[in-house]
Amino acid sequence: MAGTPPEEVKKALSEGRKILFEHEAKSLVRRYGIPVTRIEIAKNEDEAEELAEKIGFPVVLKIVSPDIVHKSDVGGVLLNLKSKKEVREGFRKIIQNVKKAVPDARIEGVSVQEYAPPGVEVIIGLTRDPQFGPLVMFGLGGIFVELFRDVSFRVAPIDDMDAEDMLREIKSYPLLTGYRGSEPVDIPSLKNALVAAGRIGLEISEISEMDLNPIMAYKNGIKVVDARIVLR
Questions:
Q1: Long-range contacts of 223-227 (CB under 8 A, 24+ apart)
Q2: Same domain for 104 and 43?
Q3: Contact 229, 27 (CB under 8 A)
Q4: Residues 80, 82, 86, CA angle at the centre, nearest 5°?
Q5: Which PROSITE patterns match (predicted)?
Q6: What pLDDT is recorded for position 144?
Q7: List of residues 6+ apart from 109 with CB closer than 8 A
Q8: Does 65 lie in the same domain as 177?
Q9: Residues 71 and 182 both lie in one domain
Q10: Hey, what's the torsion of the CAs at 189, 72, 105, 6, to 10 degrees?
């Protein structure tokens, strides 16, 4: 089923990278119908300010570097910036933090992203099993994924019914349907994203792993806040 790799994958492999930049990963999954936060790359403070205005405040800034995987650990992420002044200062601060923490890191720029308000945090993952091929994962996301390991798996391809079963299998399912007065999340959007993740695994054989985490799930719709794709 795999065909010609998408441009994002070809570009990364041509540059000797095994991990897509976040904006590349989001561009790829968005084409499969999975909603993502808007993201643009700024090379300087002026561009960051212009892009923030274009996207709309508040925004998030993140370092873009092939040498930095865990951006928060090096001071490479700033959240909920509400003005042009905060964006300019934030751009400078991120560059300073990264140069101090990882002096030799190659810096491609700083991503300016739409800020996603809090929702129910879930994860959709993809891994490639030597025997079964692409496996789709669903679970409670954010920091809780490693703490509770409340996840379910299916071999791709998956259909709407498989996706429904995956949602129901996790212990945290009541959080999705409205727990103690909280609003239920958009279950059809989550199921569509799971089916799409299976298609990505089948159609792009170069992908070894994919983590969409966290995905903010709302009453109406979902948004991928962070995306990581690792190539074989």
A1: 223/35, 223/36, 223/37, 223/114, 223/116, 223/119, 224/26, 224/29, 224/34, 224/35, 224/36, 224/37, 225/37, 225/116, 226/22, 227/22, 227/25, 227/26, 227/29, 227/36
A2: yes
A3: no
A4: 95
A5: ATP_GRASP (PS50975)
A6: 63
A7: 41, 42, 43, 64
A8: no
A9: no
A10: 0
Q: Is the pLDDT of residue 72 over 60?
A: yes
Residue whose token pair is 């799930």: 217
Q: What is the pLDDT of residues 129-186, one digit of tens each?
A: 999 999 999 998 876 666 667 899 999 999 999 999 999 999 989 999 988 878 899 9
Q: Which range of residues forms the domain containing residue 201?
A: 5-33+115-229
What is the mean pLDDT of the segment spanning 27-44? 98
- Is this model's pTM higher than 0.70 or not? yes
Q: Which CATH number do you get for residue 94?
A: 3.30.1490.20
Indicate the SS3 state at residue 210.
Answer: strand
Q: b or e along 158-179 (b: 16 or more beta carbons within 10 Å of the residue's beta carbon)?
A: beeebbbebbeebebeebbeee
CB 114 within 8 A of CB 60: yes
Q: Which residue has the tokens 């509770």?
A: 148
Instruction: Report the mean per-residue pLDDT for the chain.
Output: 94
